[in-house]
Amino acid sequence: MKRKTVFLTSSMLLLSSLVIDESHKVLAEGPNAPTPLVTETATTVPDSTTVSTTDPGSVEPAEAEEKAPLEEAKPVTATPETPSAVILHTNDIHGRMLEERGVIGLAKLATVVENERANTDQTTLVLDAGDAFQGLPISNASKGAEVAKAMNAIGYDAMAVGNHEFDFSLEEAKAYKEKLTFPLLSVNTYVNGVRLFEASTIVDKTPDVAGDEFVVIGVTTPETSTKTHPRNVTGVTFADPISEVKKAVEQIEANALAEGKSYNNYIILAHLGIDKSTPAEWRGDTLAKALSEYQALSGKKVIVIDGHSHTVHTATYGNNVTYSQTGKYLENIGKITLSADGQVTPTFITPNDTKNLVPNEQVAKIVADAKAAFDLESAAVVVANNTVEFNGDRENVRVRETNSGNAITDALYDYGRNGNFKNPTDLAVTNGGGIRATIAADKPITKGDIIAVLPFGNIISQIEVKGSQILEMFEKSLSSTLQTKEDGSYITDDQGYPLFTAAGFYLQVSGARVYYNPLAEANQRVLKVEILNPETGSYTPLDKEKTYYLATNDFVAAGGDGYTMLGGAREEGPSMDEVFADYLAKTPDLSKYVSVNSNERVIPSTPTPEPAPNPEPTPRPEPKPEPKPNPTLPTYRPGYYKPTEKKDDQQHPAATTETETTVHHSSPKGTTAILPKTGDAASLLSLIGLSLFSGLALPKTRKKD
User: Which Pfam families match (predicted)?
Assistant: First the structure.
């Protein structure tokens, strides 16, 4: 029996996000994954085989029949009469040379390939779909040359061009063609109307067997124009992926017909991805669906090996197209088996599957030499005389504004304000969980020190957001619970404000001021946000309807750490450590960062109550004099007056109750009325006059009777 094994790798992008399925099960750890939910390895594929690592729930692949999960996928044994093929593939390696927690590494990848090739009944092809060389400092130090050396030793047969192949310049991207011992493919990348790379290659490891050749076509995302530095793709155009692939197929089929050949198997190494933010016509799943409906490929086996979106996903389209993507960073190796009866079965090899493998000796030496060279380079001095301790302690960077966070975000802000993006940056943030070390004072700052602070290889990204998204973003940043003592009282800062519990999603800020009330309910803490006007140095209130440009790391930009209000199209630049190093090197005075916790950008406060309205005072009426009691009245009682019964010929309704009118006196005492002590001479004269008048009236009354 003769079996054919094809190994494909789609290189892995640098997005630092969690791999989570629809049931919210964590499958793998992204490099910038500060939350405690991250697990060690990607051991299984979830019930749904689509797993987004950038924006959970955002991937909406074209209609397809999804394959069974990893643990259920069962390779079919080929019959002796007809050769079968086994295809191994990875994507978005991004410089993951070393074996680490959850990362297989290049040396064990070589062992996997070696074991497959040891089977004399099968042939192994090794293919990669882009973004292999850039990513971590160990690979960036040689501009990807050491990764290329390892890939040559592993024995790759072809590779697609990814957007990050341009990160070290256009000249470096072209130089990979000479550094690699296998074809570097991109059917849709042009300079002045001429393809910059080969469009395709035909892999035939068994020339004596007709019909078992694999046509391999590479295609690159048009997002490359904004997902590498624009200066690196000056004069480069990226044509429509689907139409370019179809043109290549038509040309290949025409040539085959002229030569009397027939190709039954096509592999498309697509660095396109299935991100929702990617235009549909540029997506890998859209390409797969289009090829399943393409008459020129009817009756042929078509496999789309994708990368770019860092997604674990397999699917079938129509009756002849299989799609597969492994995720990122060598967290999985894909394995697709083509059986003798035509069945195509995609599965994944995990770090757990390779834990007992012995690393390939040749590749292990290449990796060790690369690390030694990097360690030597990391000793290079960036700042010779540093007098500031840049605090990167967990209890600071994940809790409150910190000088290291200020310096890092200032570096992002500075990069974005100096013409490196299409639009100048308005504000910059980075998650505290991505800051991992303190830089000591009174000693030089080395490249290694900076890498220790930002070890994940994240890259700077800029996205377009509304003011309302910025407000929601800061509410998320300030949503952690408060630290408390055993007695239940709050742990406070030196100004007496309660401190948050440490959370990786806490944002360090540049270009903005955020005022918040820590005692308010979560998601209701932001009092106001102000955006810096760099021309005047003044701050203006955030406009919820206005468009702003936010610089951050690619992990946060893609919605990582719970920032699902972000995401969307983004521009990308160099690695964070490179941006930070450049900023420190060109900043002569770092003393502005001497205060570890300045509370100048993320400002705890309490809302000032609105002043109560102050109406005009109501004039107080002059007090009315109390009625003067007359003790001579027959019904007089102190405090009460009871009218006498009226006797006449008229009928009056009988009173149901006796009514009494209360007469309030200023100071009633005893059983007789007491004159107010406030009386004056005029009152006394009036009383005497009244008495005289009463005395004169009595004789007249008697006379009348």
Answer: 5_nucleotid_C, Metallophos
